Amino acid sequence: MQVDKNKVVSFHYSVGADGEPVDSSRDRGQPLEVLIGHGGIIPGLENALAGRAVGDRFQVSVPPAEAYGERQEGSIQRVPKKYFQNVQQLRPGSVTALGLREGGHRQVTVVKVGTTVIDVDVNHPLAGRTLDFDIEITAIRDATPEEIAHRHVHGPGHAH
């Protein structure tokens, strides 16, 4: 079986940017599982996975345009503290998740912490950086109809 749209792919990865390590699934001991073709991972990585098979191990560099985009200067927003978790731990330079009105979260970098608001840079922390991945595909399976309808992988036993 090969990686294609509507397949669930499990893979281990290590990613770095500008020669410094950023993240690794091996540190958590579990591969990442993604539903291909539904925007769950950056486009450059999804394209690099296409057509691969279980056991394939490869490296790929993903430019900003196929990852988190170029940095947009002046993308600072002032946000009420109620939209953040663990506010008392936030400091300038902290990367945190910002709760969105429409649901979900967005990674932002804290610029300034005020009394009732926090100024954040809404660029993704990896915007403007080329990402270097080391990938090992560990499993591929057909997605369930529910996963396709919901546009994401469900948990163990494929429960939502």
TrEMBL record:
GO terms for molecular function: peptidyl-prolyl cis-trans isomerase activity. Residues 6-80 form the PPIase FKBP-type domain. Coiled coil: none annotated. The keyword Lipoprotein does not apply. PROSITE patterns: FKBP_PPIASE (PS50059). Keywords: Chaperone, Cytoplasm, Isomerase, Rotamase. Pfam families: FKBP_C. One of its GO terms (biological process) is protein refolding. Also involved in hydrogenase metallocenter assembly, probably by participating in the nickel insertion step. This function in hydrogenase biosynthesis requires chaperone activity and the presence of the metal-binding domain, but not PPIase activity. Belongs to the FKBP-type PPIase family. This is Peptidyl-prolyl cis-trans isomerase.
